[in-house]
Amino acid sequence: MNMLDDEDDQSFHATRDGHSHLSDVEWDAVERMGSTMGIHAVSVMLEALNRDAQHATIAKFIQNELDAEREKVALLHQQVSQQAELLREQGVQQFELLRQQQAAAGGSMHSRRPETLKIDISKYRGVEEDSLLRWFVE
Length: 138
Hints:
This protein is mainly α. The chain is built from 6 helices and no strands. Helix 3 (24-37) crosses helix 4 (39-48) and helix 3 (24-37) crosses helix 5 (51-110).
């Protein structure tokens, strides 16, 4: 339902018909102006201004809305960028902590060298009385 076409305010109801030179986008902006400034103020503005001044005033209102929305987007972008940087830093810290924990745990496991196994085996001389199989078994 059009705010400005409210049945309780019949005097303003006819203004949409009386301002057919305003585009749908401009009329939507007029409705938003009505919710911001009040229906009476918008009605007075539409009656007092000529067509060019109406277009200019509505365009200025739309531009102010756009500027306000751009400012909100810029602020949100800045907040998201800060949060992303904070998360990145936390990730780096967690990675570094995990790496240090693994190094500490791995360091204690690797610090013990396995004991070497020494076997006393005679050298294979390759003579007929010593077979290679017998040498492997020893």
